[in-house]
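2 proteins. here.
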Amino acid sequence: MKRVHNPSAQTSGKASRREPLLSVAAKLYKWCDNVKPPTIPANPITIVCISDTHNSQPELPGGDLLLHAGDLTQSGSFKELQDQLDWLNTQPHQYKVLIAGNHDLLLDPVFTDNFPERIYEKPGSCRSDLKWGDIIYLQNTSVKLHFANGRSINIHGSPLTPQFGNWAFQYPPIRDVWTNVIPQDTEILLTHGPPKCHLDLGGKGDAYLTKELLRKRPSLVVFGHLHAARGEEVVVFDGIQAAYDGIIMGEKGYLSLAVMAWLSLYHKTAGRLGKGREASKSKATRLVNAAMIGDKGDQTLRAAMSVTL
């Protein structure tokens, strides 16, 4: 009898063989998950985080810094963008920093050149005609902000997301656009899409972004894009997190599980002496998916998320 090759059966078999590994890794991760939110300094800064407003103009809480992680609009037209910029400029925050999202078509010159049938620049409604006011726009760039209380914060922003459909600022999912891109002194990272394994609907984020976070360890990462994954996490990008993320992404196996077990036992023991994971030199990172609009036809408008840093 001729043997029939069945790729789906192979994939299913591989997944089933990984189930014990994933199950044990998840239990071990939960057991050692004693990460505490970063300590609030004596001169704190209140940061209001929003994303995916899609033309809505919700009431926002006050704060020192307003961050918008992209998808200001639905269709990316000049009028939609200008309406959103006008709304943001009415907000009282000392600084307002934003990036674009995949829906903000006009802001992507490559997209407008390649797809004029989707978005067309004409006199008076070109990208260069937008009135930004005091908004700081980041597109794979950084800015250093100085606050009245003496604090200074470095922010890096990028609109890039893995390709899904035909939208702006997207790249093939296999392409690495993140390695060694985030400046080492970045304290806040503003991206449109999430890192893989973190508030990304079970693995729809970018793995290269996760690995870059393991290297750079910013204090705060704000994103959106995946509306239904809205939420907040606090993690320490240390050896335990690197091993766990690698296992979840399918890149690592039982050797990494053993590393997780050893490191977890060490930190649990050290924790009794006040030297555990939460007291280690690895600083905690707060991850915020700040999507405001619901998912799949759900137009429920959620509240902005505020963070003290």
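next one coming up
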Amino acid sequence: MAPTTLHLRSETKNLERRSALSPDVAKALLQEGYKINVERSSARIYQDDEFDKAGANLVPEGSWVEAPRDHIIVGLKELPDSDEPLHHAHIQFGHCYKEQEGWARYLSRFARGGGLLYDIEFLTGENGRRVAAFGYYAGYAGAAVALMAWAHQISSPNTALGPVPIYPTAPELEQSVKKSIASAMGHNNGQQPRVIVLGALGRCGSGAVDFCLAAGVPESSILKWDMAETARGGPFHEITSADVFINCVYLGPNPIQPFVTFDSLAEPGRKLRVVCDVSCDPNSAHNPVPIYTKYTTFQKPTLPVEVKGDGPPLTMVSIDHLPSLVAREASDDFSKLLLPSLKKLDRRYEEGVWTRAQKVYEENVKKLPAEFAPK
């Protein structure tokens, strides 16, 4: 039987530097008998020659479109906007199973082309938990940008935070933010920011808390909330009493009461200056931070939130690929988590993680409106 071929495509989203496969994971799969094609990419955090040295076959950027149909296309972010049918099995974040804006049009491309979407968010073990996620470094990077935004607002009031620099390593990011906070404290009566993290016990929340500590925010200034604290239902005045709010709560299929609202933000005495929604699904009806409708970017990391009341200016961070800020560390971690499942791709029609993901895909295809359903 011919070996199973994985084709790592280049990412097209601006400033997306992460990779679903690291050179080490590519080498491990090659040792298992898989064939690995890697598209050349100048944007990816790993250099092409790192994959070449691992033994992967380098192919032209964008060549996945013409790859044999039995090749499995591996990527991270969704594909560029198009109505072209998709004929391959794809491993990626599809962002189309929670009725997000444009979900039906995107999902229909797979259905019409006879392809298949293995959505990374829905690759789960027998216990129902995701087998791989960028959660830790999403929270870590979200806290970094949120603290940058706080420090900038204190040090340079009434001006927007500029583009977020690219940092070669996580420690360099930590030191940069630590210096920004120290500088801002000189304009803030020597006070550190008070941060509240929701979902603090999960991987994402742990990353946010760890970054705050690494950047010099004392543990006494970090309010760590999880299910026990949010069980009573929002909105929560503890959020508006903090300087920075970082939401790391996973957005599931069922609605929950909002954590903040425009009314809660308008109440007297608000201290909150920065909201970072790491979960970042502004177009979902279930969004528990319903105070924004647009994504931000690393070039324009914040947007102003127009609120009433006597509080300070409020800015929103809603970047949907935060781990790209620490792309190498995030990609190394993610690909190692995904590796045990990737090793089972040659048995994907009978192996649990892949059959479960295919079932989720098929169930969502059945939900497609008539105009998008396959003929």
